[in-house]
């Protein structure tokens, strides 16, 4: 048997598996549990008190004292009286097994009784002994004894606590099975892609963003060919900050870097540094850079760095500890401190650069700040090409039209449109995705799902029709309003109707353009006033947009003559931390007055325009009630050809999506 055991053990060790040791060799933990349980069992059952029987005073007086069976009585701690029987008086036959027990005490007490007070017990005992002779008197002794039970009541819980902490400390040192979860708190949770591990994403998958790709690819090229740069004395940037709106491809760009750089790549989210325990974030930062330096040259990617990179002093206003601040301080030290940071490049991404600490953005830490803007028409076409590859398309799909009808859309929005179009085509049991599926998907994403089953009264439907017709007529006759695509009174999302525009991609907006846009937004409210001589609550969204736009013109853009070229806009976001406004009460009153005047002027201008074109307004509303949706061709039949129609887009995009004035 011995040879057989050794043979199996040797065989198991050769493949790093082997036989498991016997159960008795699993460690000392089971021994501690067994020892604690045995001591508890021993102290309970070896206690002499466990062999005694609790009796009453009447039993003691009538059955023990009167027949002269009692040898002596010991009063313990002035609370309990233990009765010892005379040797010539054996116990009952059925109790012999108990007396002969290994843990029993042969000379121990047979009975016990709880006494109220010593004086009362002595008086009762004297009365019971009145008929006995002096030679047969009962010996009464008083003793003080420490009970194991009373000791265990406080010693046993203390021992369990000590045992638990000893057990946990052993696991923290790696002595227990399964490792120690607490010891991992200070370790970095970054995911690592080792050198030679090819990522599925490359720069070919990043459509558009040509300027951003050039700068990021320069970092990758430095890691591959450092001699080209170092021979001229150039130094690679220590950090690259990717800044842009959500969905513009910041994380995708980082994944492409991981696929192209061919160096160890560490990726982590900024929120993973912060835990409920103070000091964990700073410890994880140190551990992350330690691992990156060991595998130098390497790249660290921190997504959503604003989670830990907020401006110090503001991030902890409503917090009871400075965990985020200590994490940021450690990050600043690792990026550019006394310690060397050779060969480690940090790439970070955020869509909130205004809240980042200035020390984080200074040269020497994040040397480059790359802005990823919303794609232009040409870039949107490239993005559509990427996301249309896995789809089975019909011949009528025009990528040029798709790019033109999606101004202000990010890469994530375009990916969502392509996926939604495929779902719509599959829902209709089509064999390929057609152009109309993309148009329907675009409307679904921008405006919400159609709710044709929503039941509204004829009166409400009539109001909605004139409301949307008012938007359309005003937009058609104002030259600075975006091109009108269609009008619908089919409920979508929270709106009962919608007017669809094709925004021009512009970088600046003039005062005349602002005023025309305000008139177009007020067209629905004014149409109700002109036709029904009554207004409703359906223009809430329109009024909200108009009010915000008027305040922006007066307080931000300096477009009001009375207030003058003054702007209270704060690009740093610090005014949000202030309890008051950055201007006086007198200035606030003037701003409110000018905003009210702007809105009233736009309202009166819109009203005059609709009164002039009331016939067209009524015709369009009747057509909406009949067809529910009116396209551009029908609009031209009623309103005529729009002279200022321009569908050619400019060279760059803006941040506006197709506008949908909602009822």
UniProtKB/TrEMBL annotation:
<dbReference type="Pfam" id="PF17862">
    <property type="entry name" value="AAA_lid_3"/>
</dbReference>
<keyword id="KW-1003">Cell membrane</keyword>
<dbReference type="InterPro" id="IPR027417">
    <property type="entry name" value="P-loop_NTPase"/>
</dbReference>
<dbReference type="Pfam" id="PF06480">
    <property type="entry name" value="FtsH_ext"/>
</dbReference>
<keyword id="KW-0812">Transmembrane</keyword>
<dbReference type="InterPro" id="IPR037219">
    <property type="entry name" value="Peptidase_M41-like"/>
</dbReference>
<dbReference type="Pfam" id="PF00004">
    <property type="entry name" value="AAA"/>
</dbReference>
<keyword id="KW-0378">Hydrolase</keyword>
<dbReference type="InterPro" id="IPR000642">
    <property type="entry name" value="Peptidase_M41"/>
</dbReference>
<dbReference type="InterPro" id="IPR050928">
    <property type="entry name" value="ATP-dep_Zn_Metalloprotease"/>
</dbReference>
<keyword id="KW-0479">Metal-binding</keyword>
<keyword id="KW-0472">Membrane</keyword>
<feature type="transmembrane region" description="Helical">
    <location>
        <begin position="30"/>
        <end position="49"/>
    </location>
</feature>
<dbReference type="InterPro" id="IPR003593">
    <property type="entry name" value="AAA+_ATPase"/>
</dbReference>
<comment type="similarity">
    <text>In the C-terminal section; belongs to the peptidase M41 family.</text>
</comment>
<feature type="binding site">
    <location>
        <position position="471"/>
    </location>
    <ligand>
        <name>Zn(2+)</name>
    </ligand>
</feature>
<protein>
    <recommendedName>
        <fullName>ATP-dependent zinc metalloprotease FtsH</fullName>
        <ecNumber>3.4.24.-</ecNumber>
    </recommendedName>
</protein>
<keyword id="KW-0482">Metalloprotease</keyword>
<dbReference type="InterPro" id="IPR011546">
    <property type="entry name" value="Pept_M41_FtsH_extracell"/>
</dbReference>
<feature type="active site">
    <location>
        <position position="468"/>
    </location>
</feature>
<dbReference type="Pfam" id="PF01434">
    <property type="entry name" value="Peptidase_M41"/>
</dbReference>
<dbReference type="GO" id="GO:0008237">
    <property type="term" value="F:metallopeptidase activity"/>
</dbReference>
<keyword id="KW-0862">Zinc</keyword>
<dbReference type="InterPro" id="IPR041569">
    <property type="entry name" value="AAA_lid_3"/>
</dbReference>
<dbReference type="InterPro" id="IPR003960">
    <property type="entry name" value="ATPase_AAA_CS"/>
</dbReference>
<comment type="similarity">
    <text>In the central section; belongs to the AAA ATPase family.</text>
</comment>
<feature type="domain" description="AAA+ ATPase">
    <location>
        <begin position="236"/>
        <end position="376"/>
    </location>
</feature>
<feature type="binding site">
    <location>
        <position position="467"/>
    </location>
    <ligand>
        <name>Zn(2+)</name>
    </ligand>
</feature>
<dbReference type="InterPro" id="IPR005936">
    <property type="entry name" value="FtsH"/>
</dbReference>
<comment type="function">
    <text>Acts as a processive, ATP-dependent zinc metallopeptidase for both cytoplasmic and membrane proteins. Plays a role in the quality control of integral membrane proteins.</text>
</comment>
<feature type="transmembrane region" description="Helical">
    <location>
        <begin position="151"/>
        <end position="169"/>
    </location>
</feature>
<feature type="binding site">
    <location>
        <begin position="244"/>
        <end position="251"/>
    </location>
    <ligand>
        <name>ATP</name>
    </ligand>
</feature>
<feature type="binding site">
    <location>
        <position position="542"/>
    </location>
    <ligand>
        <name>Zn(2+)</name>
    </ligand>
</feature>
<keyword id="KW-0067">ATP-binding</keyword>
<keyword id="KW-0645">Protease</keyword>
<keyword id="KW-0547">Nucleotide-binding</keyword>
<dbReference type="InterPro" id="IPR003959">
    <property type="entry name" value="ATPase_AAA_core"/>
</dbReference>
<comment type="subunit">
    <text>Homohexamer.</text>
</comment>
<keyword id="KW-1133">Transmembrane helix</keyword>
């Amino acid at each position: 048997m011995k040879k057989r055991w050794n043979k199996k053990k040797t065989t198991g060790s050769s493949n790093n598996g082997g036989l498991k040791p016997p159960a008795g060799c699993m460690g000392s933990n089971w021994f501690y549990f067994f020892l604690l349980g045995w001591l508890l069992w021993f102290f309970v059952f070896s206690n002499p008190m466990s062999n005694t029987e609790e009796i009453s005073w009447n039993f003691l007086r009538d059955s023990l004292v009167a027949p002269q069976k009692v040898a002596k009585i010991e009063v313990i701690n002035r609370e309990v009286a233990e009765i010892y029987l005379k040797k010539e008086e054996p116990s009952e036959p059925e109790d012999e097994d108990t007396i002969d027990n290994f843990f029993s005490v042969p000379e121990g007490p047979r009975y016990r009784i709880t006494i109220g007070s010593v004086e009362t017990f002595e008086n009762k005992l004297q009365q019971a002994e009145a008929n006995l002779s002096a030679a047969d008197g009962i010996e009464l002794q008083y003793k003080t004894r420490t009970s194991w039970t009373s000791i265990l009541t406080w010693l046993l819980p203390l021992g369990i606590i000590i045992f638990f902490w000893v057990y946990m400390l052993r696991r923290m040192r790696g002595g227990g099975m399964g490792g120690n979860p607490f010891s991992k708190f200070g370790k970095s949770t970054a995911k690592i892609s080792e050198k030679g591990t090819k990522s599925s994403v490359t720069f070919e998958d990043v459509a558009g963003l040509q300027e951003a790709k050039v700068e990021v690819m320069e970092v990758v090229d430095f890691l591959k060919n450092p001699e080209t740069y170092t021979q001229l004395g150039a130094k690679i940037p220590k950090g690259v900050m990717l800044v842009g709106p959500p969905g513009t491809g910041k994380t995708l760009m980082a994944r492409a870097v991981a696929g192209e750089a061919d160096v160890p790549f560490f990726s982590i989210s900024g929120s993973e540094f912060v835990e409920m325990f103070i000091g964990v974030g700073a410890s994880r930062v140190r551990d992350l850079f330690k691992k990156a330096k060991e595998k130098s040259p390497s790249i660290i990617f921190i997504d959503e760095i604003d989670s830990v990179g907020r401006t110090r002093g503001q991030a902890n206003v409503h917090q009871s500890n400075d965990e985020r601040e200590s994490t940021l301080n450690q990050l600043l030290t690792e990026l550019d401190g006394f310690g060397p940071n050779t060969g480690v490049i940090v790439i970070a991404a955020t869509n909130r650069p205004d809240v980042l600490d200035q020390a984080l953005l200074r040269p020497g830490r994040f040397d480059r700040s790359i802005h990823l803007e919303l794609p232009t028409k040409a870039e949107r076409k490239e993005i559509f090409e990427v996301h249309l590859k896995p789809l089975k398309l019909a011949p009528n799909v025009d990528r040029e039209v798709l790019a033109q009808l999606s101004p202000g859309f990010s890469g994530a929005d375009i990916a969502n449109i392509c996926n939604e179009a495929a779902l719509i085509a599959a829902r209709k049991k089509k064999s390929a995705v057609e152009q109309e599926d993309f148009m329907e998907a675009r409307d679904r994403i921008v405006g919400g799902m159609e709710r044709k089953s929503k039941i509204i009264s004829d009166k409400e439907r009539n109001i909605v029709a004139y409301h949307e017709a008012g938007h359309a007529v005003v937009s058609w006759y104002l030259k600075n309003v975006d091109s009108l695509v269609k009008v619908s009174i089919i409920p979508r999302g929270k709106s009962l109707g919608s007017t669809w525009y094709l925004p021009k991609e512009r970088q600046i907006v003039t005062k005349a353009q602002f005023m025309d846009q305000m008139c177009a937004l007020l067209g629905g409210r004014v149409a109700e006033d002109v036709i029904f001589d009554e207004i409703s609550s359906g223009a809430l969204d329109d009024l909200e947009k108009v009010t915000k736009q008027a305040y922006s013109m007066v307080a931000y853009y300096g477009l009001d003559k009375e207030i003058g070229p003054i702007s209270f806009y704060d690009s740093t976001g610090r005014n949000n931390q202030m309890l008051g406004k950055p201007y006086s009460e007198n200035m606030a009153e003037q701003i409110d007055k000018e905003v009210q005047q702007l809105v009233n002027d736009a309202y009166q201008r819109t009203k005059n325009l609709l009164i002039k074109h009331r016939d067209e307004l009524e015709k369009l509303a009747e057509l909406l009630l009949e067809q529910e949706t009116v396209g551009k061709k029908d609009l031209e039949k009623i309103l005529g050809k729009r002279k200022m129609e321009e569908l050619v887009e400019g060279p760059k995009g803006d941040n506006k999506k197709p506008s949908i004035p909602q009822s």
